[in-house]
Amino acid sequence: MPMAPEDTLRRPLRDLRVSITDRCNFRCVYCMPKEVYGRDYTFLPRRDLLTFEEIARLARVFSGLGVEKIRLTGGEPLIRRDVERLVAMLAGIPGLDLTLTTNGALLAQKAQSLKDAGLRRITVSLDSLDDEVFRAMNDVDFPVEQVVDGIEAAAAAGLPVKVNVVVKRGMNEESILPMARRFRASGHVLRFIEYMDVGHTNGWRLDDVVPAAEIVATIDGEFPLEPLPPRYPGEVAERYRYLDGGGEIGLIASVTRPFCGGCTRARLSADGSLYTCLFATTGYDLRALVRGPEGDEEIATALSALWRVREDRYSELRSAATGGLPKVEMSYIGG
Hints:
The protein is of the alpha/beta class. The protein has 11 helices and 12 strands.
């Protein structure tokens, strides 16, 4: 197996996000807006998706190159049939931190089986506790209470839970404080994410971004906060703790406080394309390699070569000039 590679900016390969489906049961306004991903949208045919065996094989190769964490994403990963079987396959890879991100719609039914299969942690997207706001953001009229039930089921199953909130101006910034109140001292880590310009279908505008500094100030006004140091190199979330001991929050500020310099993530799409940046314009076909005659050593050599020429730092370069680039959509790459 080749040595663990570093890219042109000396960033190692440590994290892999794996999209296991491009389909989703939500139509969130910042990811899969209904006017684009409507009734007639054509998703990937099943034969184009990587099989669980192919995903597990690639995961083992990535692990051999230094990847320490794999996060399963989508689309919505819990709609992929028998997802627990994939979790069990990946959980058998030594030294791997295996986690999953979900919209929570199916989590109440799946939490225990995911834990039993070997999942170590879970992240749930929940953009508001206000039912009307939440239904407007998911745009399929899905009730917030069912996602809250999923979070409680995950906790009851013994899964540590993180709750992600994408904040979009004019939609859910009034939900910041209610979310903080609800999840303080809950044992769950709440993370606020700046609305990002991934792809083109979400109609992103800078004016729609609620900056991390504003989010922190909003919470700090009621619950005083202090910053915490990073726990490890490349941690993307800025962490703050409540001074009264009520736990912590995280801020992912890709727009106003880019963290490209420490990015150690690669992303694998459901059909086997490798992307070296969330804002990438080009992917690399790993499905052809994994379905071809190449052995694991040859695949590892190819992956190392791809990573070593990586120079992505989109968020540090974001400008009017980058706005028109044909970036891959979040629903395809998995966020």
